[in-house]
Amino acid sequence: MNPHKINRDNFLNCMSYGVAIITSSTYKTRSNDTDYPYRADSNFWYLSGFEEDNSTLVFIKTKKKSRVILFVQKRDKTQELWNGERLGVKRAKKKFDVDKTYSIDKLQNKLAEYLKDSHRLYLDLYSQNSRLLEIKKVAKKSKVNRLTNIIPIVQKLRLIKSEHEITLIKRAIEITKKAHHSAMKKASSKLHEYQLQADIEHTFKSNGAYSDAYTSIVAGGNSANTLHYITNANKLCDGELVLIDAGCEYKMYASDITRTFPVNGKFSSAQSELYELVLHTQEEVIKAIKPNVTKVILQDLSVKLLTKGMIALGILKGDLEELIKKDKYKKYYPHGIGHWMGIDVHDPCPYKDKKNRDIVFKEGMVLTIEPALYVEKNDKKVPLKYRGIGIRIEDNILVTKKGYENLSESIVKSVEDVEQMCRAI
Questions:
Q1: What is the CA radius of gyration of the chain?
Q2: Element housing 20 (H / E)
Q3: Does residue 353 have an active-site annotation?
Q4: 194 counts as catalytic
Q5: Is 119 annotated in the active site?
Q6: Cα separation, 52 vs 12, whole angstroms
Q7: Torsion angle of C-alpha atoms 108, 110, 115, 116, degrees rounded to 10
Q8: Which of 44, 305, 330, 387 has its CA 20 to 30 A from that of 34?
Q9: Would you call 245 a catalytic residue per the annotation?
Q10: Which member of 193, 245, 344, 395 is catalytic?
Q11: pLDDT tens for residues 396-415?
Q12: Which sign does the torsion angle of CA 8, 14, 19, 22 carry?
C-alpha cells in the first residue's frame, strides 16, 4: 500500500470534521534568476509523496465521508523546456491514490466550495507562504470560525516510523557508513578538510544519495570545539584529531553520524583517554534505551558519566553532584544527548506532550545519541595534554519493542577498530 496513503489515513483519524490544507514549499532565489536546489516541504511530502513545487493537498472530513484532493501545476511545454517535465493533473491522480486532482489555478474557487459549510480549518498558522496567505483570505469570507495548526498534528504522527521509513533510513546510514570509512582511510596531513568533505559527498552521490542531510562538518584539531563548524578550509595536521559529522539523505530520509579519529591513524594517550570516556558514555546511554524511557533520563545519565570521567582526568575538580548542580560540565558538554531523526535530520517532532510531560519512547521512534567533550586549546584550567581536543561520537538508534537497535553500529568507533580502518587501503 502507498505509504503516503497510510499517512493520510492516520491524519484523517486525528482531525475533527472540517477542512485541512497543507502546501508545498517554494523555490528560494539564490541570485537573480538562479535558485537553490528545490526540496519538498517535509510535512507536505509526508502526507502526499509529491515532490513538485506549486502544489497543495486538501483534506475534507464530514460525518458522511472523507476526501483527499491534490492540486498540482498543469503541464506546460514552454515551462517544461526550461525547468523539466511536470507530472500534470491526470498522472498525479493515478500515481498518488487521492480522490481527486485539479490544476493549482483552480484552488481558490474550489476552496470557497469546500469551506462553504465548514467551521474548522487546519492550516500552518505561522507560515508566510504566499499561497497560505491567499487561503486565509478565502477562509475569512467563509463560515470558518476555528483555525487549528496542522503542523503539530503531522509532526506527532512523524514520531513513529513505519517499516518502509526505517528501511530508507537504514539505506541512508549504509551509504553514510561508506563515506565515513572512506574518510578514515584517506585522511592525512597532506590534505585539507574540504578534500575529505569532497570525498564524503562524492560517496553519497555515487551511491544514490543525491544530497547531504545537512552541511558536512569536517573539523581538524581545535576546530572540532566549534559545534557547527562548516568552514572546512584548514589543513589537517599530524598528531591532531579530525571530527566528521556527516550524513546523507536518501529518498527524503536522513542519517546523522559523527566519528572522531586521528589524522595520522594513531590516537595519542591523551586523545585516547578523552575518546574512551565519550565512547563509554555513549555505550551506556544507548544500553538504557527502551520503551517508556525519556530523553531527559538519557541526558542525565550522560551528564553524570561525563562529569565523573572529567573529575577522574582532572578536567573538573570538586564534588560530582555539586558540579552537576552548578552546570560546570556545560563548559565541556554544552548540548543535548541527541534528537529525533527522520525526514529531517532534526525531525521537528515533539519532546513534550500537551501536559508538558516528557514524551516516553515507543517502538518505532528513531533518535541520535551523541555525547561529546570539547576542550578549547586556550583553556588553562585543564591539563595541557587535553587542550585543543574535541570529540563527538554519534549513532542513530531505533527504539524496538523491548529495547533498541543501533542502526549505525557497523560504522567503526572503538579505538582499535578506528585505528585499523585508518590504516586500511
A1: 24
A2: strand 18-23
A3: no
A4: no
A5: no
A6: 23
A7: 120
A8: 44
A9: yes
A10: 245
A11: 999 999 999 999 999 999 99
A12: negative
Grid cell in block for residue 237: 595536521
- Summarize pLDDT for 138-196 with one digit per residue, the tens: 788 788 889 999 999 999 999 999 999 999 999 999 999 999 999 999 999 999 999 99
Catalytic position from the list 39, 119, 164, 335: 335
In eight-state DSSP terms, residue 167 is H
Of 126, 228, 322, 357, the catalytic one is 228
Per-residue pLDDT tens digits for 356-405:
999 999 999 999 999 999 999 999 999 999 999 999 999 999 999 999 99
Element (H, E) at 170: helix 163-186
Q: Please say if 228 is a catalytic residue.
A: yes
Annotated catalytic, 97? no
Domains in the chain (CATH in brackets) are: 3-157 (3.40.350.10), 163-423 (3.90.230.10)
Catalytic residue (one of 114, 374, 386, 404): 374
129, 81 Cβ separation under 8 angstroms: no
Q: Which residue out of 8, 171, 181, 339 is catalytically annotated? A: 339
User: Does 158 qualify as catalytic in the annotation?
Assistant: no
Q: Which amino acid is at 341?
A: M
Q: Is 129 exposed, middle or buried (0-12, 13-18, 19+ CB in 10 A)?
A: middle
Global pTM reads 0.96
Among this protein's residues, is 180 annotated catalytic?
A: no
The catalytic residue among 199, 346, 405, 409 is 346
Task: Give the count of beta carbons closer than 10 Å to the beta carbon of residue 99.
Answer: 14
CA 25 to CA 44: how far, in whole Å? 8
